[in-house]
Amino acid sequence: MQSCPAGLQYAARESQRDLSHPYADVWTWACRSHAGFRTAVQPGGKREGKSGARHPRHLNRSGNDGTVTRFGWKAQNKSLVMFAGEAYNVEQGVSNELFPKERSAVPGCIFNGSAEDATNLLLNGGSTGTANEMSSDMINFALFMRLSAPPAPAPFTSSAQNGAKLFNTVGCALCHTPTLTTGPSRFTGMSNVSYNPYSDFALHHMGTGLADGIVQGGAGSDQFRTAPLWGVGQRLSFIHDGRTSDLLATICAHSSNGSEANAVINRSIRSVQVRYKMS
Ligand code: HEC
Fold first, then answer.
1. CA distances from 81 to 77, 168, 240, 255 (A)
2. How remote is the CA of residue 41 from the centroid of ligand 1, in Å?
3. Domain boundaries, the chain
4. How many Å lie between the centroid of ligand 1 and the Cα of residue 265?
């Protein structure tokens, strides 16, 4: 991992020594769990926010209809069904209706020529069953993700409130948009509601230090979707490759050659230094 800019090293040292240090508030704020997973995010329009003009945003788009895709580290997936099908095939090795063939199959080792997970039209020899029984596992996984409730936020202490202010003033919120509004959804109670993902769901160039050499859709090697910060207090590791469990190291990782976050990180260093000297 690249080294931390000197100003942030200073901030880290001071905030460990002194819990009233401004950065201690940012950590407290960032450790608050926010909302969880709502899927009716409507791309475009309200999502763009006022900051759109100040920070270049690139959106990953579906090759099929040109609409914005939003799931995955590079916002490479349009639909949770697609995500579930791909993960079932690629991560679990279970072929399914979306991805009916084994991945990297070795000749002679292919035991199922057809999809292993599929819609069950003839459950127990009949043609009926509950929707859940008749749906493939993949569809059931997608529904599970779609209908999972958000985690309840932790109490908003005064330290967390200070941290939230700093988060806005130094410019973290330019990418980690605090509040968005959902579009229409088929699911009860999910249409046109405010939620707090702390993400703009856009792609940003994050510099040579984070580049992973992977291209997905319109997202190049150093481009990543702003990681949503809801529930961040319950996460065990941060950054797309899980390289650290330390929030300071995570913020340092935002800063490297070519990163759109460099100005914000520099501003946050200055803000920390000024506030620390004044306190
Ligand atoms: C230019 C846009 C941008 C700005 C500004 C920005 N971030 Fe990020 N942030 C990202 C992106 C993109 C990622 C995902 C990077 C990756 O995984 O490689 C990320 C990841 C994170 C993560 C890790 C989340 C996880 O689940 O791994 C945290 C925490 C975070 N940012 C906090 C902050 C804070 C605090 C600030 C302000 C000091 C900030 N960010 C400023 C775009 C930004």
1. 9, 34, 21, 34
2. 20
3. 6-76+154-278
4. 10
With cut-offs at 50, 70 and 90, classify the pLDDT of residue 193. very high
Determine whether the shortest distance from the Cβ of 250 to ligand 1 is under 6 A. yes
pLDDT score, position 271: 72
Cα gap 74→72, rounded to integer Å = 5
Ligand 1 atom with minimal separation from the 240 CA:
17
What tens digit of pLDDT does each residue of 206-220 get? 999 999 999 999 999
Mutation probe of ligand 1 site: the residue of 58, 175, 214 with most atoms within 8 A of C-beta: 175
Nearest CA to ligand 1 atom 41: 172
Instruction: Kindly compute the dihedral angle of the four CA atoms of residues 21, 26, 28, 30, in this order, to the nearest 10 degrees.
Output: -170
For residues 255 and 222, is the Cβ–Cβ distance under 8 A? no
In this prediction the pTM is 0.79
